[in-house]
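Extended Data, panel c. Modelled sequence:
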Amino acid sequence: MTISEPDLRSPLDQPHPEYEGRPFFDQTLTLLRSVRDHDFNTLAELCDDDFGIVDVDPSGASVAIRTRAEWEHWFHQLFAQLGALGAATDSEILDYVAIEGPFLGYSVLDFRQTLTIEGITASFDCLATIIWKSTPEGWREARWHASVISTDIPAGFGT
């Protein structure tokens, strides 16, 4: 009997047939992949954030960000901090629903965010509400609000 190598691909790169075709799902995947990959440029292109964001920091606390300048600073600082720690992040989509109108839409994303540092992984189950707006360039995120629902942080994590 041959033991195969484990599949180490991100859950974000797996097929999601149950959500395909739902409004803003492809954009939502792009948002999550951009965070996973620390890809500021792709994230910045998709996010308008007219109404600011409420996000979750690496410790699981809420952070309110109200302006584009604060948004850019937050993500540059976050990606630099994660890089300095050698940290990896990923997300697994647990549920997704969305409604699209002619000018605005919204989606509700239930997901598990993981943060791995030195081989130890903490997880944060989150619920995000995303407001989308139609622009000449396509749909853009206008508001992100995420809340941590539960955490699993192993003893000694990040110390």
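The two ends are 40 Å apart (CA to CA). This feature is highlighted in the accompanying rendering.
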